[in-house]
Specification:
6 helices; about 25% strand; two-stranded antiparallel ribbon
């Protein structure tokens, strides 16, 4: 199971989390988020180890700005969390890994993902909210049994130390990894290293 830690922005915290060797580290490039990462962190991002996939998270951003961030920060992956079309996603496929996020609730129609199958590398299933993620709430994970595509997916939304054992019981063949964020924070953008260390031990045991 891959582990993604998302919503990082403090240089020292980034360095400490990198030592835990997550598979992915996510940086919010959406200025309405409390976890928005400013451009002053370019050097801190460059110091993330090569083995970690650096992921930039965008919401309905322009192709130009996304391209600039990929070039300026050396991102390996982008996570598109807004209303981006399959064609928009395809545009970046030859540049970086593309993750398309969707907000999930009990009535979510998984057939809407069919058009994205050849446009993205991974899906991310988060809790449906008025905003774009970061709610700290989990959706009903039984719903993902309705997902029948082979495209791998990350699970996000309300994941905490209290439900990691439950997550380890998910046997969906396309289940790729978990996205850890708000339940592992001291404050928005600042992760609790000890809690994450515990989480890594549970998930990798």
């Amino acid at each position: 199971m891959k582990i993604k830690v998302c919503g990082l922005r403090n240089p020292g915290n980034i360095e400490a989390i990198a030592e835990l060797k997550p598979d992915y580290m996510g940086f919010i490039c959406y200025d309405k988020s409390p976890r928005y990462v400013s451009e002053t962190l370019a050097q801190a991002l460059r110091n993330v180890p090569d083995g970690v996939t650096k992921t930039a998270v965008f919401v309905n951003e322009s192709k130009e700005k996304i391209g600039q961030h990929i070039a300026n920060f050396g991102f390996n992956s982008i996570q598109l969390h807004g209303d981006e079309s399959p064609d928009f996603c395809t545009y970046f496929r030859d540049k970086v890994e593309v993750i398309k996020a969707f907000g999930i609730d009990d009535s979510f129609d998984f057939t809407k993902l069919d058009d994205y199958t050849n446009s993205v590398d991974l899906f991310l299933f988060d809790t449906k909210t008025v905003g774009y993620g970061g709610s700290g709430k989990a959706f009903n994970w039984d719903v993902i049994n309705k997902y029948t595509l082979n495209k791998p997916f990350f699970l996000s939304g309300g994941i905490s130390l209290d439900n990691l054992e439950q997550i380890k019981q998910i046997k969906h063949p396309a289940f790729y990894g978990v996205d850890l964020n708000s339940k592992f924070e001291i404050e928005p953008g600042l992760k609790d290293v000890q809690k994450l260390e515990q989480a890594f031990k549970i998930l990798r045991s």
